[in-house]
Every structure is written in C-alpha cells, then in structure tokens.
Amino acid sequence: MLDFAKVFLTVVGIFFAAYLIFYSTYLFLSSLIGSIILYKNKYASELKNEIEHKFYVPVSIIVPAYNEEVTVVKTIKSLLGLNYKLYEIIVVDDGSKDNTAKKIIEAFNMQKIDRPIQMRLKSKPVKEVYETNEYKVNITLIRKENGGKADSLNMGINASNFPYFICMDADSTLQIDSLENIVRPILEDEKIVACGGIIRIANGATVKDGIVYEYHLPKNFLVSMQILEYDRSFLASRIMFDQFNGNLIVSGAFGLFKKETVIECGGYDTSNMGEDFELVIKLHVYCRRHKIPYKIKYIPEAVCWTQVPDNLKDLCKQRRRWNIGLFQSMLKHKEVFLNPNYGFVSFISYLYFLFYELLSPFIELFGLFVIVFAYFMDLLNVKFMIMFLLIYAVYGGILSFTTFLSRVHVNNLKIGVFDVIKAVFMAIFEITVLRFILVFIRFSSFFNYKRKKNEWGSIKRYDVDKAK
Amino acid sequence: MELHIEYLLYIYIIITLSMIVFDLFTVSNDNLKSKRIKRKSLKFQDEILSIISLDKKDEEHIKLLIKKLKKIENLMAYHNAIVVLLDNVKYESSVRKYLKEYKLIFNSLAQIYSKKPDMYKAYFAYIMSIYKINSSNDSNYITDILLEFSKNESLYVRENTLKALISFGNELNVFKALRNIARREYAYNNKLLCDDLLEFSGSHEELARILFDNIKIFNVEMTLGIINYINYVSDNFKKELYEMLQDKNVDKEIHLAIIRYFGKHEYKQALDYMYNSIKDESSNNWEYSNACVTSLKLYPSKKTKEVLKKSLQSSNWYVRKNAAKSLLHLSLLENEEEIKLDTDDVYAIEMMKYEIEKKENFRRGR
User: Fold this and answer.
1) What is the pTM (predicted TM-score) of this model?
2) What value of ipTM does the predicted structure carry?
C-alpha cells in the first residue's frame, strides 16, 4: 500500500510540478510582455507613431439593456459625448420589467416609428421601435420580447446601419477617446474582424462624461482585489495572446466587430451564457475553415469603465455565468482542441483556457485531496509545502502588482503612496484569498448549470459618476 | 526522484522583483523626462523669440540647434515650444517665417534622422507636416529624404511622410510618394488615403489629374481611395470615369465608387448604364443595383421614378431601402398611398412608410 501511495504521489507530484511550471511561466511571460507592450505603445504615441484621422469608420454602438433604468440614460448621454463623428446608438430593451424604455423615451424625446428591420440574424420579435435625430448622432430604441443578451445583440446587429458595430453593457461608460482608439487598428489593417478594448473597474474612479477625474483603489477589499485580478488575468494575458492572434475573448462590455463576418458566422449564440467568448472562438473557427485571412486585436488604449460586483453574492453570480459560458463555448468548439489547423490558438490559447480556467477548480481540488491523502500516509513534508505555498503567493502577488503598476503608469493615472501600499497587500490577498473563493465558485457553477441557463447576469447598479 | 520546483520559483521571484525595480525606475525616469522636456521647451521658447526679434540670421543658432536636436528628447522639447508659439496668435506668423528662414536646420536634421530608428523617422516626418517649411515649388533635401521615407516598411513612417508632403502642396511629390508605396505593394487603407489627400495644400485639381492619369499603377485599395478623393474635389472626371465604369476588367469595388461619383456629379450619359444595372436582378448584382438606386437621386425624371418604384419591390433589402430614400429625396412620392395604388408588395409599402415617417420626424425634430 505504501509503495503504491509513493508511486501515486510521485506521478501526481510530476503532474503538479508541470502544471505549476507552465502556469508560472505563463504568468511571468504575460506580465513581462504586457508591461513591455504597454510601455512601447506609450512611447510610440508620444512620438506620434499612430494613425490620427478625421475620416471616421462608421460604427453602430449596440447597448443591450434589461432592467437598466438606473444607468441607461446616463450611459446614452456619455455615448453622445464621445470624441467621434460617425456613429449611431442602438439600445435594445430586452423586455425589461422596469421603466428602462420609458426613461429613454422621455430623456431623449424619442418618436415611435414603423421601422422595417431586416432579420439577418434570428431574434425574438420586435414590439416597438423609437428613433430620434435631435442629437449629434441618431439614437434608436428597439423594444423586443425577452430573449437574453445574445438575442438583443443579434437584434441590434440586424438594425445597425454601419459596417462595424460595438457591443457594450448598459451599465458601462466608454472613455471619451475609446471609439477613436478602438477603430484605429482597422485603418491600419483591414484583416481585422474584431477588436477588444480594455475593461477598467469604475468602482473607485471618478468618471464623468467619459473623462477620468480621479483614481484610487476602492475601500472595498473585494473590488480592490478584482482590480488586481483584471490587470493580471485580463490585461496582461490578452496583450500576450494578441502577439500571436490568439485571443479567445473580446469582452462583452466593450468590443468592436466587423458586421458582415459576424453575420456570416451566425451572430451571437442565444443558447450560450458566455456569448462574447463563444463569438470570438466562432470567428476563429469560421475564418480558418473558410481560409479567410483575419485578425482579432486587443487594444489596451481603448478604455471602457464598468462596475464590478462589490459583494460576494454578485461576484458568485457573475463568475458562475462566465464559467458556464466558458464550458459551453469550449464544448461547442471542441474541434479547436489539439488541432494543428488552429496553430497557437489551439496549442496555447485553447489549452490555457481548458487547463487553467475551465478545469482548474477540479485540478486544484484534486491537489487539496492529494495533500490530505499524503498527510495521512505520513508522506507530506509540511514545512516544504508551507514554504512552497508562501513562495507561490509572493510570486503571484508580485506579478499582479507589476502589471498594476505598469497599467497605472502608462495610462497616466495618478495614485498616492497609500494606493501603492494597498495594491501590494491586495495583490497578496488576491492570489491567496480571492483565487480560492473563485475556485469554489467556478467549481459549484457546474452543479447549477441547467438552472441558471439564459438568465441576464445582473448585479447591483450604482451611478458611475458617484461610484467610489 | 526529488523535485525542486521551488528553484524555478526563486528565479521567477528574482526576475519579477527586477521587473518592479524596472517599473519604478521607468516611472521615475518618465517623470524626470517629462519635467526635463518641459524645462527645455520653455528655454527653446525664449530662444526662438529672441531669434525672431533679430534683424538678421543667426548662424550660431543654426549650429547650436543642429547639435542639440540630434537627440530625440530635445527635438520633442523643441517641437513642444514651436507648437505653443504657433498656438499663440501674437507669434504665429513670425514663427512660421522663422521656420522657413532656418530651414537649413531641418535639412541637416533630415539627414541625421534618416539614419535613426523608424520610430524617430516617423516623428521627424510628423513635425515636418506641422511646420510646412516647404512650399509647393520647393524641391530640396528634406523632400528627397521624405520621398525615401515613403519607401519605409513602417506604416507610421509612411503615413507621417505622406502628411508632410501633402502639407508642402507639391502634387508631383505626393504622386511620387504614392508610387513608391504602390511599387512596394504596401497596404494602404482607402479611407486613410482619401482623408490624407483631402488635406493637400496645393491645387486639388492638379493632384487629382496626376493621380488619375497614372491610376493603373495603383492597386484596388489605393485606386478606391483616389476615386473617392476625386469624388470630393472635382467634377472634371466624368468622361474618364464613365469609360472606366464600362471596362469589365475593372474591379467591382471601383465600379461602385464610380457609380457613387455619378450620384454626386451629374452625368446623363451614365443613366442608361444605371437603369440597366438595376434591371439585372441576379443575386451577385445587388451591390450595383444598390449603388445605382442611391445615385439616381440626382436624376429626376419619369423613367427614374419608374425604375425606383420597381426597385422598391426588389428582393434585396438594401435596394428597397435606398430606392425609397431616393424617391423621397427627389420628392417623387410623398405618401404611401401612391405606392399602394401600384403594388400590394408589403415590403415596398413598409419601406416607403418608414422613410416617410422618418422624414416627417426629421422635419419636426429640426
């Protein structure tokens, strides 16, 4: 029995060693490449190595809304203030139970109109359409039967007049120069079919009319930890994946897409809870199958401010949705797994999401089980284990802190010494506390997968201007 | 077998700690740099103002600036100083005069920066586009260097170079730069090209002519940009463009751009082509039909009305939509009843109804 346990623990040890080596390398490379690219972009911008143009690419901004009466008017107002000339705003009210539509109609003096909409993508029926041309750009409000976020986005695509569209959340605020920045790569490279912007956490920032006036790490620990997590996991890793056209996600809170390509590949999947993730994998699959040269870019200069959950309950809801969406998408596009036709997308991006996102709760729980088993078999070096975990925590914390610092610096955000000290502690907490909470949430999401299907993910909303 | 994964982590920790040191160093270095540039910029402002007040050229100033501006940081500070002075109405004309008088400095700098990395070349070309130190008839060292820059692989070097040449206003140099780009088959977004050309400070008519006369050397994307540019600046290309429209070897996108040209610049000889294109209802022709029904808004006649009304029943959504828009634009139909008399096509009625309502809402809104 003891021999068997020794062999078992050796094999498991090798597996975990490899698992951690890959993950540590991934974290290191993403932080390093992320920081270098951010600095390089900043310097290039100072030396005017960028495209600045008046000839705008026309863009339709699609804002799907469900029970968003608190924030939607402010969101539209902020969109009207963007530094851009040629765009339209399409708000799709997905059968809200509150006064979302009424608030918009009153605030913008919208007129009801019998507008025919070409249903190139399947979507729930339209109830009413309102329009107004009294503002800088046209605003359209579509009231439709409830069908979920993906369904609303498909409706928005159907109604859009322009060749590119932006999807965003009704509770998010685009920074004043975000549209200009996200469109810029299209002028440089026509192969681009999607561009993701950076999602920054609005809790703690004073953002008014798309301009950041003040920035601090918020008092709320959970939010602060998410800021560090966003910087490390989203910003740094997406910049790294961007280097080999391997991004598998363009956030639903802010992304630009080429309309025709999205329509050709079937639009958003209404049965998927991670419609944003699924769409991007689908674009990879579609373009590679049809041998269409394509690029999916990540633009860290295009900024969208959004609110994140400030309590554990909302965080659980959000992360469950993400995890179920991830599971559905990866299962649907399983052909990408170890498929040489997909190159790095298959062997780096897909494998990363499979082992370090989707399966990691199981792997980490298995790790805990093995520790307990080894302890009872008297085969565990407790001292070594504690030292190892400490080193690992410090390592992860340093990486999070590094990316945070790079991001704050290159975005010219002014933070105080207190914020820096706080960031150091939060980075350690994030890797030692939040990470394990998220593992549990992701693990549990598999058990209520059916029950939570097709719900709108809603968290408690605040006025972004006042959110701190 | 003993595993020593902790060693790898130690190495990572050392590297990441050095990353933090690097970050902190870069942050403080950046702050110091921006303070330095600010200080130097103020000094340059004083220096330039004192030079402006002199009656004759100061040779020392030339020597000193050539020496100083070799460093990119100094060039950035100098440029900041120039921008501040140009923004001041009081100094604008004298600073422009100063820049032309001391062009020699930039001749030397052009040579120096032609040997520097692409990022610096792009910056040098950028400041040339702001200073506009060459006029359309000048041909000098700076122009020659910029024409060399137009062969560069970096998009930003080429883009800033083209902007500089466009700001100088010599059509031949702009053409030469575009020819360099075309010969090397560099990608050039048509929107970007059109936008650049619209900023040309010389004669648009002459630029349009030289580009069109050499249109065959450009690829589809660049040709599109040039035709779109011509669409904005000249109505003297109707005959030539019509000939191009009839050439079946020409790319579809270019044909569509030409049809749009005839939607802005009236050319009755193109009418039959447009009517016939609309008649062809094959599925791969819808883009032609769509462009034609849009352009017909410039040609009011009984025949146009008939063709557009028929297009309201097209199987293609965009053709129906734009036919309705053109009909309303020409005030050929003012209510849906007229359509109802002719057809029971629900799509045609729906589209017209929407466009009429939209027009009404627009009137009310205004």
Assistant:
1) 0.88
2) 0.84
